[in-house]
Amino acid sequence: MRKQRSKKYDDKSLREKKIDFRRHLRTYLVMSAFFIILNLFTIGSIGWAVWPILGWGIGIAMQAMSLYGPLADPEDVHPREEERGTPLPDLEDRMELKELDRRPYRDEDLV
């Protein structure tokens, strides 16, 4: 099942933003290749395909700079990075958690 896409971009973690960027970049590369191939079959040279590739490329470049470059937000921290300062649970608590993971039943059986 797919995730709902109701989360706003500003509410996403840094990791989610980077995953979205990689998806966007892949889509851009595939569509750029499609535009070039379509243009080569119709005209025989790269003509109009340059314009959507350049326009979309500007958007990709801005998104990349906002995540990796000079426009990156220094306060944009993954929530797990903030929690790293907390100590780990003691040995007894970890043992209880491991025992809970070894259940003789499935979650579906409880419903």
From TrEMBL:
Superkingdom in the source lineage: Bacteria
Disordered, as annotated region: 73-111
Sequence ranges of Basic and acidic residues compositional bias: 75-111
Pfam name, any one: 2TM
InterPro entries: 2TM_dom (IPR025698)
Transmembrane feature ranges: 25-47
Residue stretches making up the 2TM domain: 16-70
Keywords, comma-separated and alphabetical: Membrane, Transmembrane, Transmembrane helix
Name this protein carries in UniProt: 2TM domain-containing protein
Organism: Neolewinella xylanilytica
